[in-house]
Amino acid sequence: MTGRMPGLIVLFDVDGTLTAPRKAITPKMLQFMQDLRKVVTVGVVGGSDLVKISEQLGKSDTSCCAVISDYDYVFAENGLVAYKNGELIGKQNFKSFLGEEKLKELINFTLHYIADLDIPIKRGTFIEFRSGMLNVSPIGRNCSQEERDEFEKYDKVHNIRSKMVSVLREKFKHLNLTFSIGGQISFDVFPQGWDKTYCLRYLEDFPEIHFFGDKTYKGGNDYEIYESERTVGHTVTSPDDTAEQCKLHFLAKQAGDA
Ligand SMILES: [Mg+2]
C-alpha cells in the first residue's frame, strides 16, 4: 500500500457510520472502503467486541480473520483489543487493570448498595461483568421490557441511578473510574480514558487523524474521540453520508493531486 497519503489515517466508528444501526455492512459500502484504503490508511474503532464487529463488517466469511485484514487497524472494545495489519498489537481488560482485590471491593460495595435499595421491583443480574467494564443495574438486567419501561419512569422521578453513581464515585474516587449512565436501566463503570480515545495510543506515527462517527454529541460514544485535539472530527448521519464526506475529503483531493 505505497503511495497513500503519508502520516494520515482515517478512523471510522462502526454502528451507524459504516453500517445501518445493528445491521451488516452493504456490499457497496464494503467496496467503497476498499477503494478508500488504496488512497489513505484506514482504521475502524468500535465499542463492541471483535466477534460482533466481524459480524457487522465481514463479507460472506464472518470469521474474525477477514475483518482484521480488511483494514489497516481494527480497534475492538474502543481499542482495548487492537489489531494492526491483521496482527494483535494490544490487549487490555478491566480485571487485569484493577486487580482482583480492588475489583472485589467495588463489586461487594455495589451489591450491598443494591441490596439496601428500596425500589418497587428487583429481578436478576445486577452486575454484568464485561471485559472492559462493569454494567450495573439496580433493577437487574433480566427484567422484562415492560419492567424496564417502568423502571426508567421511576428513575426519572427518584434518580436512583444518579444517586447511586454519586455514592460510588465518591467511595471509589482513588480508582479513577468513569460512571456513565446510558439506556433505560443501567450504568457502565470503566477506567477514565477507556472511551474511543483509548485507541489513539497506537497511532503516534500519524500527525493527522480523521475520525468519522454518528454519535459525536456530548454523552454519545463518539464524543471524546471526536472532541480530542489529536483528531479532526466529522459527524455523519448514515453510511451513505460517510461515503459522500470521504469522497469530498480524500478522493477528490487525490484526483486533483494526480
Ligand atoms: Mg455509532
Characterize the main sheet. Answer: 7 strands, mixed
What letter string, H or E per element, gives the SSE order?
Answer: EHEHHEEEHHEEHHEEEHEH
Question: Structural class, from secondary structure content?
Answer: alpha/beta
The name of the CATH architecture of the largest domain is 3-Layer(aba) Sandwich
Q: Judging from the principal axes of the Cα atoms, what is the shape?
A: elongated
Counting copies of identical and different chains, the oligomeric state is single chain
Rg (C-alpha, Å): 20 Å
- Strand portion, in percent? 15-25%
What percent of the residues sit in helical stretches (DSSP H or I)? 25-40%
Can you list the strand order of the major beta sheet?
5-4-3-2-1-10-11
Average per-residue pLDDT, rounded, comes to 93
Q: State the name of the first-level CATH class of the largest domain.
A: Alpha Beta
CATH topology of the largest domain: Rossmann fold
**How many domain units?**
2
CATH homologous superfamily classification of the largest domain: HAD superfamily/HAD-like
Secondary structure elements and their pairing?
Elements: E1 8-12, H1 27-37, E2 41-45, H2 50-57, H3 64-70, E3 73-76, E4 81-84, E5 87-91, H4 94-98, H5 100-115, E6 127-129, E7 134-136, H6 145-158, H7 160-171, E8 177-182, E9 186-191, E10 208-213, H8 223-227, E11 231-235, H9 239-257
Parallel strand pairs: 1-2, 1-10, 2-3, 10-11
Antiparallel strand pairs: 3-4, 4-5, 6-7, 7-9, 8-9
Bound molecules: magnesium ion.
Structure description:
Helix 1 packs parallel to helix 9 and helix 2 crosses helix 3. The protein is an alpha/beta fold. The longest helix is centred in the C-terminal third of the chain and has 19 residues. The protein contains nine helices and eleven strands. It folds into two domains: 134 residues, Rossmann fold; 97 residues, Hypothetical Protein, Haloacid Dehalogenase-like Hydrolase, Chain: A, domain 2 (2-Layer Sandwich), CATH 3.30.1240. The strands form two sheets. A seven-stranded mixed β-sheet has the order 5-4-3-2-1-10-11. Strand 1, helix 1 and strand 2 form a beta-alpha-beta unit. The mean pLDDT is 93. The two termini are 17 Å apart. Helices cover 38% and strands 20% of the residues. Magnesium ion binds next to loops.
